[in-house]
Design a protein that fits this description.
Radius of gyration: 24 Å
Strand content: 25-35%
Distance between the termini: 84 Å
Largest sheet: 10 strands, mixed
Length: 264
Amino acid sequence: MKKFLIFLIILLAIGSGIYVLSPSLESIIQNIVHKYGSQVTGTDVNLGGFKLSLLKGNVEINNLTVANPKNYTQPYIMSVGKVAVKVNLKSIFSDTIVIENVQIENPKITYELLSLTQNNLSQLLDNINKNTTAPDKNKSTSSSSNNEEKNDIKQNSKKVIVQHLLVSGGEINLAASIAGQSASARVPLPTIEMNDIGKQKNQNGTNIADTLSAVLQKIFSTAYNTVVNSKLADMKTTAEESLNSVVEGIKNKSGLKKLLNFAK
């Protein structure tokens, strides 16, 4: 009976500890996602909510958003209502955290065409590549601050292995506004599945930055290729027709007036 009471007290203590730590743990996770996600993408990355079940190792992330690069009108390049994560509890206190499964449900991705040669997806992919590529030791000291930032997101963090990742039910919203004319369309994002992220280069896992980079690069490159192979040609045609109509309008006064009004 005494042993049972001691065991019960221990369980109550653990349960109380989990209850007390949950709010602060949520804040810590939010800060980690914002810090590393923002450094990798070069835009603001935030999450609205976080639920943790320590006894089962289940994590639920709600309202994850990745902001658009500068000069684009849409607030987010990606928003996700729910991300479900299953963590191997035994690995939490080791050097490498093993995430057994990540399921990203119904992500909304916005492809925005700033001009005929500029779009937000390719720009964000460039940001990820620049922010996670190993710094060139031969570069001048003028870029030392950037190198230090890259090292900051690669060092002093635990290693991570993601055994399985599934992205399903996604949608890509296409938007373009050129010469006062707009075009829009929607296409489904193909299902994305990745296995053993972090094992390709290092059997002991990769740091948080490289793991995030691998996942985001896969999602955004898939979205970009999907757009290119589906509705992008139609949007380019619409944009080119809009530009041609403006050029033709210059030949008469009414066209010139329209152009001047557009410039205002």
